[in-house]
Write a structure and sequence with these properties.
The structure is a homodimer.
Chain A: H1 5-23, H2 33-42, H3 49-60, H4 65-86, E1 96-97, E2 100-101, H5 103-107, H6 109-133, H7 138-152, H8 157-170, H9 179-204, H10 209-236, H11 247-250, H12 256-260, H13 262-279, H14 288-298
Antiparallel strand pairs in A: 1-2
């Protein structure tokens, strides 16, 4: 019987969104602008790819979804904060996200900055507080805090965003934007958090070193494939990415698809998907969800 | 022999700033705008009150400065991020901080937002990574991450800033700004991080519950006194706070001094200082630094 990815994704999405809804409530006090702004972006939908990867990876090494859920939710909160801040007028200046007006468009810049700050800070609270409550050991939680803060911080995601802004300012004409430069930017800006979703979930589930190594390669590969496909979708206008297509071209941003061309980009994404699936060959059927996710992401609607 | 607070503060400031300088280097790669912007604000001086409190509190219960240093530096990084974001045009729109141009004035808004995000994220990395290296147990580090993220997050410092922005928008005329409202805002906006500096430092040093309880009261009291005195200095223009005086009045911000008057504010600050010192009466001479800091802060130059 083939793996039923649709049901898997739907079930895990509900698990994650119910937990996030609960975590982001403040029982007993009316919602202020801060809470509204936080909930607006955190509960606005999205694929929940990163937290699902954390859970699937935990399951792949024999762990339970419940063990990984705190770290999964924390990573989604960090991802959401990064979207809220990236959309700000002084950054990418986007008006739409996931098909709805961006946070600052609705609540104003100050509230959007604070909502992002709060989601980032509270993510570490959720990781540890809920992680301990789920029975995860303090040693494993310290490792999760360390790995995730590294992936999201000045040597990971934030560095990627800084490089992306520099590229945007420099433009294509500077001649300095190369394919490997774009790959490096993507591997930091989106890849680092996707990779750590996979490895942190697995560590919580009790993975050994050789398993972590394979899963890191899996995470790197799908992360980069994911971004290249996003670029392609942006050019071709296919898929359902909930934002204006062609927006990257408007910003004169250099993209993988823009430099390598559509065909080459699709080929590279396909290679990366194969690498990801091959990295899982030491795992048994408990890794079916990870395999199916890689193939699903590699075959998105273009 | 009276306690030599000057030497204590100077020595600890050097310890903290040397460590921060080391932590915020990226050996082997040239400084990009992101790193420059981070270092500009994190190494721009300041009293280093919060990290010194963490160290002094650790020492008060018999711990060493080295044990507390990672948590101390992490708290100072969180404090610095909050200043960088609070100064942004969409927030308090300040051009000067600690006597020099604010981060966004020098590096632009996008870089300032990213530098703040990076300092906040990296703070949790420093806390755990350096904490483990200093021999602090994973269980204590989890508690530090939990306590500090709570104090800095949506139910602490960030909520205080959100309330402060609301007060500013509403203005004094709304009739809703009361002294207890101002105290609540301060206790969240600046008090929560000062209090957790004291309690987190003590926990790392091995404090028991009754010690933590006393130190929490100490931290709450000096935190509020500190803010009330800042308000008074702002009105009177005394002291050396490195920013334009009268700036709060210009923003039509409601301050403690503005509502209660200067005399009443000084009286309240003096009471709070006494409460702080009294809270330390179960501690021996190892708490001399904490006592001296409370008296020093309570007697600032007004």
């Amino acid at each position: 019987m083939p793996f039923d990815l649709d049901t898997y994704l739907r079930t895990k999405k509900i698990l994650i969104e119910d937990k996030l809804d609960l975590l982001l409530r403040n029982p007993g006090s009316p919602l202020g602008t801060l809470e509204e702004s936080i909930r607006y972006s955190a509960l606005a939908g999205g694929k929940r790819l990163r937290p699902i990867l954390a859970i699937a990876s935990c399951e792949a090494v024999g762990g339970s979804p419940e063990q990984a859920l705190p770290v999964a939710c924390a990573i989604e909160m960090i991802h959401t904060y990064s979207l809220v801040h990236d959309d700000l007028p002084s950054m990418d200046d986007d008006a739409l996200r996931r098909g709805v007006p961006t946070n600052h468009t609705v609540f104003g810049e100050a509230a959007a900055i604070l909502a992002g700050d709060a989601l980032l800070t509270d993510a570490f609270n959720v990781m540890v507080d809920q992680g301990l409550a789920a029975g995860v050991s303090p040693a494993l939680l310290c490792e999760a805090v360390r790995d995730i803060s590294h992936a999201a911080g000045s040597k990971g995601m934030i560095k990627g965003q800084a490089i992306d802004l520099d590229i945007e300012v420099a433009g294509e004409d500077s001649g300095e934007v190369t394919l490997s430069g774009i790959e490096r930017m993507h591997s930091l800006k989106t890849g680092a958090l996707i990779e750590v979703s996979v490895t942190a979930g697995a560590k919580i589930g009790g993975a050994d070193e050789s398993q972590i190594e394979r899963l890191a390669l899996y995470g790197q590969s799908i992360g980069l494939a994911f971004q290249i496909i996003d670029d392609v979708l942006d050019v071709e206008g296919g898929g359902d990415i909930g934002k204006e297509t062609g927006v990257d071209a408007r910003n004169e941003k250099s993209t993988y698809a823009g430099i390598a061309g559509i065909d080459e980009s699709k080929k590279r994404a396909s290679e990366l998907t194969s690498t990801a699936v091959a990295a899982l060959d030491i795992f048994d059927e408990k890794a079916e969800a990870l395999r199916a996710i890689a193939l699903y992401m590699g075959g998105r609607n273009y």
